[in-house]
Design a protein that fits this description.
Distance between the termini of chain B: 30 Å
CATH superfamily of chain A: YVTN repeat-like/Quinoprotein amine dehydrogenase
Largest sheet of chain A: 5 strands, antiparallel
Number of strands of chain A: 35
Oligomer: heterodimer
Helix content of chain A: under 10%
Order of helices and strands of chain B: HEEEEEEEE
Strand order of the largest sheet of chain A: 2-6-5-4-3
Number of strands of chain B: 8
Radius of gyration of chain A: 25 Å
Number of helices of chain B: 1
Distance between the termini of chain A: 62 Å
Radius of gyration of chain B: 21 Å
Strand order of the largest sheet of chain B: 1-2-3-4-5-6-7-8
Shape of chain A: globular
Strand content of chain A: over 45%
CATH topology of chain A: Methylamine Dehydrogenase, Chain H
CATH class of chain B: Mainly Beta
CATH architecture of chain B: Beta Barrel
Number of helices of chain A: 2
CATH topology of chain B: Porin
Helix content of chain B: under 10%
Structural class of chain B: mainly beta
Largest interface: A-B, 41 and 44 residues
Number of domains of chain B: 1
Shape of chain B: elongated
Structural class of chain A: mainly beta
Largest sheet of chain B: 8 strands, antiparallel, barrel
Number of domains of chain A: 1
Chain lengths: ~425, ~210
């Protein structure tokens, strides 16, 4: 009896009427790190082939495919036979986001610098030129970086997963959890197919790419400006002009002698007949959204989707751009979550993110016909290389399709992402 | 659905009242104890200092706390059979209206009279309910899911018999209730991965009721 009483006393003494509430939360946050100029300069190295981890942009040049790993480097893939692509090498470039190739010279950004690399031997890529401090800030995958010209230091952020436990007030004055999240949000920049229209041999990049080559000029869109570089002398790219575009620039698409620039509030059309100084002709405004754009036969196809860059409805707009100074909307189509898209010979291919890949017949702009919907794959972006060869990149890897028959896409090969 | 359930629980109070009249229906005498209670507790509100003004990271540091008194209502009905002269076993259910969520306790209960001066006089009664609090009646919400948990409720109190065989009850107890609240993270949310709050609610209980 005494023992029971003792236990009871102890138990009662340990009881309290104070609630104990703990919240265990796991979240991603952005953690800053800094990069000095030397680090940037010495950061470019050739490495052996590596697995794809998080493929971002794709660029096709002759028989090569270049796949970027955001801010890490570029995979060089020999795609001579699309049914069995071979990884050749991995080129480490700190801070790389975009790339473009002309005549065996690869132009890529490396944080603040524009570098020119000779890729004639993809196993031993050499740096042949560098323009310093061309860019002073950037934004990709929801993370922005900036350059401080006084300290000459680049500050970038990376995601870090944190788990922590804090005590709460048991929902008494309910402090609502999803509160503000760190970092700056923008949608994953993925691109879609476009042909660099030049007489010399340059490659095919994405419409969501911020780099494109037109004749002897390399255009690089930053968030707010369009930089024009003269690349006539490949070894020494030269910055020649800067056009202010307003905020939220996402994509750049060359079509004939025009440049279509997608921002998250509208589509800018530039006359590029004098490539050194493009002139703005008009702006087609739309709701705030993420919007890659492609153009064919005087019709621009713009996908709008909900994402980090806006909250517009998910749709595909077909815009008549015959009169470039007065574009008008032909029709809007309901979509699920459209990302990159491509068009060639009326074969319109739209990536629907986790909803898969859709191919349309775009003969009639007022009546797009769905030909095939491949579900169960994740599709970010497509490039139509030629009439029958389609490249598609998604979270799971790079897919190559034969789309001779848009009703029946044949998978040629897939480069898996290392999970 | 939930409204029906709540009505059902309230209805069972009434139902039991009429049911109690037919005593010879079961082998043991049927006992119903229906009580209305208040759960008194204290909540510790820890203040945190967040070094980053725009996010949780770097991790916050504790920076003092304040304590707040809270009270919540509870309705409960114990229905059982008097298996011994002084012992009744049965099932306890009801409604616990905690500030953040509404729980339905489902517990096995024992009531035992451990002291009485005489048959007609006041009795000292101890009770124990052990079971789970279920969040079934909690209003659904797209931000969080509430999961109930273990419930432990020892009580001690008085029974005041009336002339017609019923009794008035006054009980004092301690109520422990576990609860788990998980945030529903939207698939488009790239920052938040998971967030679960465990609540150990410890309350001092005062309840008034009657038995027949």
């Amino acid at each position: 009896m005494k023992r029971i009483l003792f236990f009871l006393t102890v138990a009662i003494a340990n009881w309290s009427c104070i609630d104990e509430c703990n919240q265990t939360r796991t979240y991603r946050t952005t953690v800053p790190f800094q990069i000095g100029q030397e680090q940037l300069k010495n950061g470019i190295t050739n490495e052996g082939p590596q697995d794809l981890v998080k493929p971002s942009k794709i660029y096709a040049y002759e028989n090569y495919l270049i796949i970027s790993e955001t801010k890490k480097g570029l995979h060089i893939i020999d795609n001579t036979s699309p049914s069995s692509p071979v990884k050749v090498s991995f080129l480490k470039i700190p801070g790389v986001i975009d790339m473009a190739v002309r005549d065996n010279i690869l132009y890529a950004d490396s944080y603040t610098d524009l570098v020119a690399l000779d890729i004639s031997n993809p196993k031993a890529i050499k740096e042949v030129g560098r323009l310093k401090n061309m860019f002073n800030h950037g934004l990709i995958d929801g993370i922005s970086w900036y350059y401080d010209p006084y300290s000459k230091i680049i500050t970038d952020y990376e995601f870090k997963t944190v788990t922590e436990t804090v005590s709460t007030n048991c929902g008494q004055n309910s402090n609502v959890w999803p509160v503000f999240r760190g970092g700056i949000a923008e949608d994953l920049a993925f691109n879609s197919g476009t042909k660099g229209q030049t007489s010399s041999s340059s490659g095919t990049g994405g419409s969501m790419a911020r780099f494109t080559i037109y004749e002897d000029y390399l255009y690089a869109a930053t968030q707010s400006d369009l930089l024009v570089f003269n690349i006539k002398n490949e070894q020494k790219p030269d910055s020649i002009s800067k056009v202010n575009l307003g905020w939220g620039i996402e994509t750049i698409f060359p079509y004939k002698d025009k440049l279509f620039i997608g921002s998250n509030t509208g589509m800018h059309i530039f006359d590029n007949s004098s490539p050194a100084s493009p002139k703005r002709l008009s702006i087609f405004q739309h709701a705030r959204a993420c919007d890659p754009v492609v153009v064919e036969n005087d019709k621009a196809y713009v996908t709008l989707r909900q994402g980090w860059c806006g909250a517009a409805p998910n749709q595909l707009d077909v815009v008549d751009v015959k009169n470039l100074s007065a574009p008008f909307l032909i029709k809007s189509y309901q979509m699920e979550n459209p990302h990159g898209l491509s068009i060639m010979n009326n074969k319109l291919t739209v990536c629907e993110g986790k909803f898969g890949l859709k191919s349309f017949d775009a003969k009639e702009a007022t009546d797009l016909k769905l030909q095939q919907h491949i579900k169960n794959i994740h599709a970010f972006d497509v490039i139509q290389l030629d009439d029958k060869h389609l490249l598609m990149v998604g979270e799971d890897g790079l897919y190559q399709y034969d789309n001779t028959d848009p009703k029946n896409l044949k998978l040629l090969s897939k480069i898996e992402v290392k999970k | 659905m939930k409204k029906i359930l709540i009505l059902g629980i309230i209805g069972s109070f009434v139902f039991n009242t009429s049911f109690g009249q037919k005593e010879k229906l079961f082998k043991y005498p049927f006992v119903n104890q229906t009580e209305f209670g208040v759960l008194f507790g204290r909540v510790k509100n820890t203040n945190y200092y967040y070094p980053g003004y725009s996010s949780y990271w770097p991790s916050p540091t504790q920076n003092g706390f304040s304590i707040q008194n809270v009270a919540s209502l509870s309705l409960q009905t114990f229905n059982g059979f008097q298996v011994r002269k002084k012992t009744t076993v049965g099932l306890t259910t009801g409604l616990d209206l905690y500030s953040s969520s509404l729980l339905v306790p489902v517990a096995l209960g024992v009531r035992h009279v451990f002291y009485e001066k005489n048959q007609q006089g006041a009795k000292l009664q101890a009770g124990l309910d052990a079971g789970v609090g279920s969040a079934i009646a909690n209003a659904a919400n797209s931000f969080e899911t509430v999961k109930g948990g273990v419930l432990l409720n020892p009580t001690v109190g008085f029974k005041f018999p009336t002339k017609n065989g019923s009794s008035w009850l006054i009980n004092f107890g301690y109520k422990y209730q576990y609860m788990e609240i998980s945030q529903i993270i939207q698939p488009t949310d790239i920052y938040n991965i998971s967030s679960t709050e465990t609540r150990n609610l410890k309350r001092f209980q005062v309840k008034l009721g009657f038995e027949f």
